[in-house]
Amino acid sequence: MFDFIGMKELIVIAIIALLLFGSKRIPQLSEDVVQAIKHFRRAFKDDDTKEVKKR
Q1: Which of 16, 25, 33, 39 could lock onto 21 through a cystine, CB 3.0 to 4.6 A?
Q2: pTM of the model
Q3: 13-35 pLDDT, tens per residue?
């Protein structure tokens, strides 16, 4: 998945994120991203089931 990103680049990205958001905010941001992905998947799943029922 991340074949084009090396370990150095990931460390730099992590340091920048730490500087921008702070150590207390990063866990909350990751939880928010996970919940957003779950809601996004659920919305597509619900949409697909509604479309199948219409047929």
Answers
A1: 25
A2: 0.54
A3: 989 988 998 888 988 988 999 99
Tell me the C-alpha to C-alpha distance, in Å, between residue 22 and each of 5, 11, 15, 38, 52.
23, 15, 10, 25, 45
What is the rounded (10 degree) CA torsion for 11, 16, 19, 23? -50
3: left (phi over 0), alpha (psi -120 to 50) or beta: alpha
Give residue for tokens 């730490």: 18
Rounded to whole angstroms, the Cα distance separating 33 from 21 reads 14
Residue 36 identity: A
